[in-house]
Each structure stands twice: as C-alpha cells, then as structure tokens.
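Handout for the seminar on molecular recognition.
Each group receives one record of this type.
Step one: identify the two inputs.
Step two: read the structure output and locate the region that could contact adenosine-5'-triphosphate.
Step three: write two sentences on what you found, then compare them with the reference statements printed after the record.
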Amino acid sequence: MPDDQRKSLLRITSIETLYFDRIYALHGLSLEVKEREIFAVLGPNGAGKTTLLKTIAGLLKDQPKKGAIEFGGKKIQRLAPERVASLGIVYVPEDRGLFRELTVAENLELGCWGRRDKEVNSDMEEVLGLFPILKGRSKQQAETLSGGEQQMLAIARALLRRPKLLMVDEPSLGLAPLMARTVYDALLKISKAGTTILLVEQNARLALSIAHYGYIMESGRIVLEGTAKELSENEDVQELYLGLGGETAASPKGWRLYKKRRRW
Amino acid sequence: MDNFLQYLVSGLSIGSLYSLVAIGLVVIYRSNRILNFAHGDVTTAGTFFAFFMLSSNFSFAVSAVAALVFGALIAMAFYFCILVPAQRRDATQLGQIILTVGLGLILQGAVQYFGGTEPQSFPFPLSEYIVYKIGVVSLSQLSLGTLAASLLSCFLFYLLVQKTRLGLAMRATSENLPAAQTLGIPTRRILAISWGLAAGLGVVAGLFLAPALLLDPFFMLEPFLKGFAAAILGGLNSLPGAIVGGLILGVAEALTGGFVSIAFKNSLAFIVIILVLLVRPEGLLGEEFKERV
Ligand SMILES: Nc1ncnc2c1ncn2[C@@H]1O[C@H](COP(=O)(O)OP(=O)(O)OP(=O)(O)O)[C@@H](O)[C@H]1O
Ligand SMILES: [Mg+2]
C-alpha cells in the first residue's frame, strides 16, 4: 500500500509529448512516484510507455512541449540527458542500452563514470553479488551475452550510478519466464535496499507481483491507477491485462479500457 | 627483387602518412557518422601555422606543437560553434557533411589570404638528401623519420583509445550516444576531444608531407584523398583498418609507380575506392554498424 507519509520523488503534471511536432504520444499525462517504492506503468503496445520514460530522461529533444516534471522538488523538463542523469535518474531502455562492442567489465566501469567516492569497489562487489552470472563474463563482449544476461548487465550498470530513481523499460521483454522471474527478484531486492523504481511493462501479472502502485496507460493517457492489489482485483484489468475473465489477450489497439470507462 | 624491397619500404613510409590522415577521418566517422571534408584543409592550416612560427624564428619543436594545437582548436571550434548548433536544429547527415565542405572552403580562402599561393619550401630538421643504406634498401632521413613518427603516433593513439578512461568514453560515445548520455558521460566534451585529436593526427601528417611536397594552400588535397581512399579500404569505421589501408595504399602506389608507370600512381587511389565500394563495401577490416532499434 502506498503510504501517504512517504515523500514524492517524481511528480509529472499534464505533460504533452509530440513526435515531429504533430503526432501526440503523450496527452496531458500526470503521475507521481513516491520514494522507495516500485511504481509500474502498464499498457498495450503503442500506449506511449517508452515515450514517457524517454521524456523524463530528457532523450526527446525539446519535449515535453507542455507540462512539468519535478524531481525532488526541482523542475527537470527539457533538461539535457546528461543533466537529468547527473541528478540521479537512470534509465534502462527497452533495447538495454549496452555498449555491445565493449566488454562486460568496460560496461560496468562506464557505469561508475564520474564517481570519485571510495565505495565504488564495494558497490561493484554488491552488484556482482546480485548478478553472479556476470562475474565469469567480465572479459566477454556485451553482445555475446544472452538476452537475460544483457538485461542483468544493463541493470547492474545502472545501479553503479547509485540512482535515486531507476527507470526500467520492459525488463521482461524477450526473456523466458524463469529468467524474467530472476530479473524481477533482483528488482525487488534493489527496491528493498532503498532505490525507487519506475517500471514499464506489458506483462501486467509480473509487474503487479512486485509493484506497490500501478498506472494503466492507453493512448498517451493514464486511464486507471491504484495499488497493485486494487488493480489486480479490478475486473477490467483482469479481463484486459491479466487474461482472466471472458477474453484472453490484452486489447491490441489499446483503447478498450478507455472506451469502456467513457461509457460509464 | 632489390627494387621491390626499395619500393616496399618507401611505400610504407608514405603509406604511414595516409594512415594518419585516414585515422582522423575514421575517428570522426565513427563518432559523428559524417565524413569530414575539411580534414585536409584543417591540416593545411595547421601546417601553415607551423610555417609562420618557423619564419618567426621559433624552434621546430615549439612550432610543431603549436601547429598541432592550432589545428585541434580549429576542429573543436567547428564542432562546438557550427556542428552542435546544426545538430540541435536537426541537421541531416548530408547537411552536416556539407558544413564540413564549407569549413574546408573557408579555411582554403584564409590560407590563401594569409599564406599566399606561391609554393614555398618548408624548413624541416630532417633532410631528404641524407640517405642511409640498410642492406639493399636506401632510405632518406626524411622517410625514416616519417615512418618512425607516424607509427609512433598511431601507437600512442591506439594506447589512448584502448587503454585510458578517456578512450573508453570515446568508444562508448561513438558506439551508443544515448546510452552514454544517460550514464552522465559528458558526450559533447568527448566528441570535441575526438575532433581535436583527429585534426592533430592530420597535422602530424601535414608536417611530414610539407618538406617532401612544397607548401602551398592545396598541398594536402592529394594526401587527403589518398587518406580517404585508405579509410574506405579499411572499412571507414575501423581504426586498425585505417592503418592497414594506408600502408597497403602506399605500397601499392609505390609498386605501381615503380613497375608500371609513374602516370598511374595517382589514379590508383581512386581505382581502389571504386573497387572496394563495388566488391567489398564494408572494407577490409570494417564491419557494418549494426542497426540498432
Ligand atoms: N521516434 C518516433 N517517431 C514517431 N512516432 C513515434 C516514435 N516513437 C514512438 N512513436 C509513436 O508514439 C506512440 C507511443 O510509442 P511508445 O514507443 O512510447 O509505445 P510503448 O507503450 O512503449 O509501446 P511498446 O509496448 O510496444 O514498447 C506510438 O504510436 C508510436 O508509433
Ligand atoms: Mg516501449
């Protein structure tokens, strides 16, 4: 359950993001992420989940066009990605964002870029303890890792930056269920150790199994929000996203829930 | 056989200069995905700067270092003041390449204005006329110095790229820019340094070419095109490829000039470009950049 005492870390108010100045990808979207919890954003293909994370990370030039993004009380919309990163927001993209031609060790070293504190070594050990598979692969090029190992490397590298907010885009994408579970268990451990996580996922069941709070996003808007428990018990969510009830798959077009709610 | 060895060695010496030019082009292609058509002119400007310093009675070492810095500053200023604003306005790849052509023309004009168009001999501490005999091969002091200086530059650059943190950041930035940005790596600064280093390597080549050719505003045109051919031969995105490409081109040129006809010496570079693009577009050591989603 989200605890109202907890401080808000990230607050997004009615942002609008456009591609090519005319295609709306985010339509006045608002959401809030509180410290030390896992927040999940769920939604079908093309809902704008990746766009949301990229907008926060500053990777879309001059976006959001409208609205505000506050991080720890400071306005960060339209900052350069390097600046956003230096504030403690680390983004693990859908394609994992690894340096594929560099080795595992080099990728990890780049995660420590700009850190001068003494804890770098102990952090490195901690991270390798979390993902022991990476230990034996340090001299291997990142592109030769399996999909799951690449995801672990991407998360490990992100952790070395000591993020205040870790944003992960579809960590389960392309992974076998067992591997996806391993990655999710690691995310849960990371959260327990005090890192706030903003998670984007199509696999609602997996995401809701670790998240405290969830947002359901369709066509660039938040159409439903609630605690993980509330969402799991919601009939529409069960039908459209968890594959219970009458229909099996999530709506391909992504407007089902939205339409349905409008009818009420 | 003796002739063959002689051509081989002189080919390696001149080829090593093509390698230096090619590395500069490849560094910029890898990190910015554009061809730098101003490379030769930046080099010319740097070499002319050394010439002025020498004329004002500075020592050769001081003049050479100043020329490297001068060339590097021009390239970095171009990156920061022209290329970055253009990229911010979503300039296409082609648009950016045309900007480098523009820079080249501006520099050409400036060099003509300040340096004059008359060919001048470039005072150099190594002589073309002192010749050492090593076995059956004779090598001028200048060729020997050229070979040593360019191989040393290549080696130092290799160490920088492969073994230092700066080099690691350069490799990361050229491979995956957004990832480097989200890790907080100062990518602008890293790219500016790449521009500076590329220009510096070019000026090294210019300094060694000037005494062999004569110094005029267009003396780098041919070496630039040969360096370009060498880069393409090596695959355009591979540093070892650039080095090997330059050496092969130099040797092939010397052999053609020696055994076939001196008339073909210059056409060879273009025959190489055409053949590579037709037969093996990814070059000898190149690997197509994998398209990333
Ligand atoms: N670079 C782009 N240029 C133009 N339109 C884009 C671009 N990237 C995304 N879009 C559009 O923006 C909308 C949202 O895309 P986005 O990638 O954010 O969806 P998503 O929720 O992450 O989907 P998925 O689950 O498939 O990853 C889509 O309609 C998409 O076509
Ligand atoms: Mg996505």
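Reference statements: The mean pLDDT of chain B is 88. DSSP finds eleven helices and two strands in chain B.
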